[in-house]
Write a structure and sequence with these properties.
The chain has 230 residues and is mainly α. The protein has one domain. The protein is built from 8 helices and no strands. The chain has helices at 11-21, 24-53, 58-95, 102-111, 117-144, 146-158, 171-183, 194-229.
Length: 230
Amino acid sequence: MEDKCPFSVMHNTQNRLLSKSRFHIIEDLLTVYIAFFAVFTYNYIEMFCININQGGSSMQESKSKKFIKTSIKPIVVGVIAALLGIVDSLVAPLFVAGANFIWVAFVNWTAFFGASINERLRAIAGYVIGILSAIAIVKLGNWVGAILAILIVNTVVVYFEHAKKLFIDSIPGIFIGIALTFSGAGVGLSVDSPTLWGIIIVYGIFGLLCGIGTNYFSKKLSSILEKRNK
């Protein structure tokens, strides 16, 4: 049967891997990834400590500290991304059989990378406004034409930037919501499909949680390593 889902060029490969032994392959790859970087980082820290004990130069110490510090976030991002892939393989089929929506989470994770928790919470309201805005563009377009509808709706939503007290001022969240709603055509979902709304909001939240996890665990691990190096 021909695959009708154009959302991801990767999901066929992912499904074949999962069919072999559920999540064992992904789990093994994730375990190897974590073990490799854990051992690598530990060895580097050990070398750093030896250099200090043996009177290593300040330049060596500086390079070691910089390497360790800059390696933490990439490792955290890699682990969280792998976990997100496992979550997607469980959740996506609940929305559309044979689909893969991890990219929706990545869009939101990237758009709010480094943002505060407050900004992320406001983004959720932005997704909802974006969905409604996309619906408005389609409905209004039936009356006045698509171009004029786009002009009117996009002009209006930017005014939400000044509605900070109402918690609906996330312009990035709004436009992500609009874009993702129209992208639903890729799996045959109309802009007024509850399934599409669920995908946008659920995976949008996944992306925001990934960002929160990135910030939290990066800072936590950095703090632990700094204390160990004192």
